[in-house]
Structure formats: structure tokens, C-alpha cells
Design goal:
Blueprint (H helix, E strand, L loop, with lengths): L6 H21 L9 E4 L11 H15 L2 E4 L2 E5 L4 E6 L2 E2 L3 H5 L3 E5 L8 E3 L3 H8 L2 H6 L2 E2 L1 E3 L3 E2 L5 E2 L2 E3 L4 E3 L5 H7 L11 H7 L7 H14 L12 E6 L6 H13 L5 E3 L4 H14 L4 E7 L10 H6 L4 E5 L6 E5 L3 E7 L5 H6 E6 L15 H7 L1 H17 L12 H13 L9 H8 L1 H16 L11
Parallel strand pairs: 1-6, 2-8, 9-13, 14-19, 14-20, 15-16, 16-19
Antiparallel strand pairs: 2-3, 3-4, 4-5, 6-7, 10-11, 12-13, 17-18
Helix pairs in contact: 2-4, 9-13, 14-15
């Protein structure tokens, strides 16, 4: 026998269904709103209605699913698309972490038919607990190197933008790979410097062609930061015969191209401990890839000798004691170290570790008239084009089989790779100033030269004249 529903009960059922539909509409997200990941099992007072490990696993899943949360050095950071925002430094959460993570997930306490669910952001204490959880921390992708320009990894793979899990590189750049490749014509032979690089360097008074080419070598080193960490790379020593010639401007121009910003300038300090503290404070907070130690000189004209620069500038791993703390700041040495000076002698160790870039001008440099654009303004305005020219040089070398050059330097791999790239682009003169610069820089060689000159002048190598015995 068929049971018929009364009109009254049908009306009640229809009312119930309409109410349920109305609640569903009220609780649904309007078009354009984000559907945030929901963490359940948490009360507003941070107590958990589910096992803590289950709650933490849920938070970990949401972090991984976002594909925007990374480990970077001793931090946890969020990829904002054009910058990295730290949310945890060492093991401490930042103050506004709760509001930052509310862009990715929220806590939700289930409601009932007549009561909507309760939603609220995760507390800082729960986030700190989650990000210090070993399973969650280890599950986050790691950034080994962060760059604001396209670069090449250690295997010469081109990284133009985004995250590269194989090499653990994250690149933020407004250069599009297709645009770069369209700009580079590998089929055409190269007969001269690319135009923008040539224009940028045209107003600097280099002592020789080799000094100019060594600047290009510095640029090429900067777009291959992972390639020379283990075997090392030289300290870039920019020397001028007098002040006002443009050594610091050249270093700043290199920084504007490589990092897109002025490098932090560290004044040279004779006392190694003070210099170490200044360098450590700078690189801990500065996202750039250049260390610029400016205007190196000692009182009474003594040679520059710094065991800190000698050891740290070429070491594979940096480990520097943090001032007023009982721990060291550690990171791979993917930085370019630069030292500027005016006709200054250095210790033999510094001289052997250096790539010399020498400027020379006769007369008053303040009366000098420049032919072209301001180098710093030009580097900033045409950074994109200069980077494409440098990338094109490396791509041409790769297309030719990555043939290494036959160049000798303390840092063999660096000299062979950079020399090979320059050879592939028909740029001659690389390291052609090494012997001459070594004689000019090296204080011991200078002393021997003076001794020899005195011996010749007095006709006997053991003359007692002038204090020589």
C-alpha cells in the first residue's frame, strides 16, 4: 500500500530544504574569493580536539600544497612572486606570522545546521610549533640559491624564472626566457663586445684591454654563482692610480647589473675583527650577491694584509662569528668579493688570490669630461639588455660544446670556464695583466725590486749603503 505525504508535511519538508539551501548560499564563497585550506581540530585557545600530530600534519599538508613556503638558510620564507618574506628566523616565528599565513589557511571549528562553522587564523604559537616540527620542516622545499636575475646552475642549465627543484634555485626576474632566446642569435659570429656592455664600460679609463675584459669576467662570474663555490673564484681587486678615477663607481655599476641594486659599501678597516663584524652584519641582512670593501689603505702606506679577506673571500663555505652571539653565521660562498684601492700594495696572498682590474688617468680626474651616459644610470636603465648580452655569451659557449680555455690562475676551473666563454665570443685579453699587476700589488716583490735596484746602484749585492746587508 502506498503511503501518501500530507500537504502539511510536504510544506515542512520544502521549508527545511529552502532553509538548508539558504544557509548553504550564505556560507558559500562569493565569486573571486579564495578557498583557503582549512585546519580542523583546533580551538581558539590552541587546545586540540584531535591528536596534535594529526593537526600538525594537516598544517604541513597545507604548507606543501601552497608551493610558496620554503626553507632558506636558517629561515622559513614565503615566495611573494618578487621577493622572499621571512616568517621564521632560526627557530622563532615573526610577530605577524598569523596574518601572513591567513592568506593560505585558517582554522575551522564545525558548526551545526542552525550555527555556521567558526573560522579563525592560526595562532603564532601553533605556527611556531608546526614550523619547528622536524617532519614539516624537512618536507618544505629548500632554496639553496636565490637570485633576482636569470642565472646558470652548476651544470650550466639555464634558470630563467621560478623554482628549480633539481638545483634548488629560485629565480625572480622580469626577463622571459623566450625573450632572451629571441635576443640571442647564436648563428652569427661575434667580432666585438656587445653594444650595451661596450657602452657601459666606455667611460672608464682602464689601464689595458685586459683590465676591461676582467670586468666582463666578473659579470660572467656573477651569472654563474653555483659554478665556482667548491673550487673557488678570485677576489676582484679594483685599483686606481689616484682617487676620483671611478673605482667605486665601477664596483657599484657591476652591482647594479648583477643584483639590480647598489651594493652595500663596507669601508675597509685595518683591524680584522672589526672588518669581520662589518661584513657579517652586512651579508646577514643584505639579499645581494656582492661584498664591496671600499678604499683599502693602511696608515703610513703599509701594505694591505687581511687574513680575514684572504681566507673568507675564496673559501667554499662562509662561517663568521656573529657579534655578541655564541654562534656563527654560515652560508655557501656564492658571493663576489670586491676590494677597491688606490695604487696600494697588498700581501702576497692577496695578490695571488686577486683578479686585477686597474684604472689609470693622468691629470686631474675632476676635470675629466665624459663622452657618454652616466655609468650608474646606464646600468640601471639597460640592466635587462646587459644581462641578455651576458646570458647570450654563455649560451654561445654552451652551443659550442662548453670548451674550456687554456688560462692559468690560482683558481683553475674558474679561469678555464670564464676563459672558454670569452674565447667563444672572440673577446681577447683575459688575464693578460696578471703578471704586471702581481708585481705592482705584491709588497714582497716590490721590496725585492728595491733591493735589486740598490744592489745594482752600489755595485755589490751585499753593500752596507742604505742599510742593506
Amino acid at each position: 500500500m502506498t503511503t501518501r505525504q500530507s500537504s502539511n508535511s510536504r510544506g515542512v519538508d520544502l521549508e527545511r530544504r529552502l532553509k538548508a539551501a539558504s544557509i548553504k548560499v550564505d556560507r558559500s564563497l562569493p565569486e573571486g574569493c579564495r578557498n583557503l585550506y582549512k585546519v580542523r581540530g583546533v580551538n581558539k585557545d590552541n587546545s586540540c580536539t584531535q591528536p596534535l600530530e594529526k593537526v600538525l600534519a594537516s598544517i604541513g599538508d597545507s604548507l606543501t600544497a601552497s608551493e610558496e613556503v620554503y626553507r632558506y638558510r636558517d629561515q622559513v620564507v614565503i615566495d611573494e612572486g618578487d621577493r622572499l618574506t621571512p616568517v621564521m628566523n632560526q627557530n622563532q616565528i615573526v610577530k605577524n606570522a598569523s596574518s601572513i599565513f591567513a592568506n593560505y589557511m585558517i582554522c575551522e571549528k564545525p558548526g551545526h545546521e542552525d550555527r555556521p562553522p567558526t573560522q579563525f587564523p592560526l595562532s603564532n604559537s601553533l605556527l611556531e610549533l608546526a614550523l619547528n616540527s622536524k617532519p614539516i620542516r624537512s618536507s618544505l622545499p629548500r632554496i639553496k640559491y636565490y637570485s633576482k636575475k636569470p642565472i646558470f646552475d652548476a651544470d650550466h642549465n639555464f634558470c630563467s624564472g621560478g623554482y628549480y627543484p633539481e638545483s634548488e634555485i629560485l629565480v625572480h626576474s622580469n626577463l622571459i626566457e623566450s625573450e632572451i632566446l629571441d635576443h640571442v642569435d647564436l648563428s652569427q659570429p661575434v667580432s666585438d663586445l656587445p653594444p650595451h656592455l661596450s657602452r657601459l664600460l666606455s667611460n672608464f679609463c682602464f689601464r689595458s684591454q685586459a683590465d676591461k675584459v676582467n670586468v666582463i669576467a666578473t659579470f660572467l662570474t656573477g651569472i654563474q654563482p653555483q659554478s665556482f663555490i667548491v673550487e673557488g673564484k678570485p677576489l676582484m681587486a679594483i685599483d686606481a692610480n689616484q682617487s676620483g678615477v671611478g673605482k667605486t663607481t665601477l664596483a657599484r655599476g657591476i652591482g647594479k647589473v648583477i643584483d639590480g641594486d647598489d651594493p652595500e659599501i663596507i669601508d675597509y678597516i685595518e683591524e680584522d675583527r672589526e672588518l669581520r663584524n662589518a661584513v657579517c652584519a652586512t651579508i646577514r641582512d643584505y639579499p645581494g650577491s656582492l661584498i664591496l670593501i671600499d678604499n683599502a689603505k693602511n696608515k703610513r702606506g703599509a701594505p694591505i694584509s687581511s687574513s680575514f679577506i684572504e681566507s673568507r673571500s675564496t673559501a667554499p663555505m662562509l662561517s663568521i662569528r656573529i657579534l655578541h652571539q655564541s654562534r656563527n653565521y654560515k652560508r655557501p660562498n656564492d658571493l663576489i668579493w670586491m676590494l677597491t684601492m688606490n695604487d696600494t700594495k697588498t700581501s702576497p696572498d692577496l695578490a695571488r688570490r686577486a683578479l686585477p682590474i686597474r684604472l689609470y688617468y693622468e691629470g686631474d680626474p675632476h676635470r675629466r669630461e665624459f663622452d657618454g651616459a652616466d655609468p650608474l644610470g646606464y646600468a640601471e636603465r639597460y640592466r635587462k639588455e646587459i644581462l641578455m648580452e651576458l646570458i647570450g655569451m654563455v649560451l654561445r659557449w654552451i652551443s659550442n660544446g662548453c670548451t674550456r680555455g687554456n688560462y692559468k690562475h690560482r683558481f683553475t676551473k674558474w679561469a678555464e670556464v670564464i676563459g672558454g666563454i670569452l674565447d667563444a665570443n672572440n673577446i681577447q685579453g683575459f688575464l693578460g695583466n696578471i703578471d704586471e699587476a702581481a708585481e705592482a700589488f705584491d709588497s714582497e716583490l716590490d721590496g725585492l725590486r728595491s733591493l735589486a735596484e740598490a744592489a745594482v746602484a752600489y755595485g755589490h749585492p751585499y753593500s752596507t749603503m742604505g742599510g742593506i746587508r
